[in-house]
Design goal:
Elements: E1 2-4, H1 7-19, E2 24-29, H2 35-47, E3 50-55, H3 75-84, E4 89-91, H4 95-98, H5 116-120, H6 124-139, E5 143-147, H7 151-163, E6 169-173, H8 193-198, H9 200-214, H10 220-232, E7 237-246, E8 259-268, E9 271-280
Parallel strand pairs: 1-4, 2-3, 2-5, 3-4, 5-6
Antiparallel strand pairs: 7-8, 8-9
The protein binds pantoate.
The site of pantoate has 10 residues, from strand 2 and helix 6.
Length: about 280
Amino acid sequence: MKIIDGISRMQTMVKIIKKEGKSIGFVPTMGYLHDGHASLARSARAHTDVVVMSIFVNPLQFGPSEDFNRYPRDFARDEDIARRAGVDIIFYPKKEEMYPARYCTYVDVEGLASGLCGASRPGHFRGVTTVVAKLFLIVKPDMAYFGQKDAQQAIVIKRMVEDLNMGIDVKILPIVREKDGLAMSSRNVYLSKVERADAAVLYESLKKAGEMIEGGERDPKKVINAMSDMIKTKPSMRVDYISIVEAKTLKEVDAISGEVLAALAVFAGNTRLVDNVILKA
Ligand code: PAF
């Protein structure tokens, strides 16, 4: 496995790979890898010739009072997980090279990025789409892999790729969960013992939504209230939002029909956790 920390070295490597007629599978990450990331890399390994994973904690997608400085970082651990998942190249660019002082170009996906997490985290998706566009232009992948856990991010990135004719096949892979259902996330490491145990209620509440819709409930407000009541039974959890939206457009629904996304963000202390399920009425 190669580690490349310079943009021009990465671009040279990409030219060589393309010249050899090989396909590139790309897994963008912010590091502190877990099995969710490894599953993306394994899928890239199975479907493309060369697997590139980027590890870059992107300052642009963090708000001023968010956790950029304390975001968990452990390169040696990441290296080991990436190697075992079949990654060929880790691209590990430096903040100063990605965003030099003169930097002033941004990518904004309007509308889709404004609700759900976009409403709670202004500027977050602008940061995500800007860094992903830059990484795509550097790595030039044939296929790129993202997790369903960040459902809105997945939809926003797919739209960016389509709107800007990037010609990249974007694959969204299922959420990988802990035994008690908690979605794997690099931020789970922040949780205290109590918060970690209580956090299982997030997936429980999403399952409850599924049961209610399966049982014929079509009023999103009733489903959201039931989920909220369930989460409130855990004092360490504080709901940021719970939404039921059209799965493809992320538009709020008055009545549940077709495919909907039940999505939530919940604070456990200062840690913001997200999760979602796609449900069919
Ligand atoms: O999902 C993430 O880890 C990040 O948002 C991404 C896509 C790597 C961009 O920084």
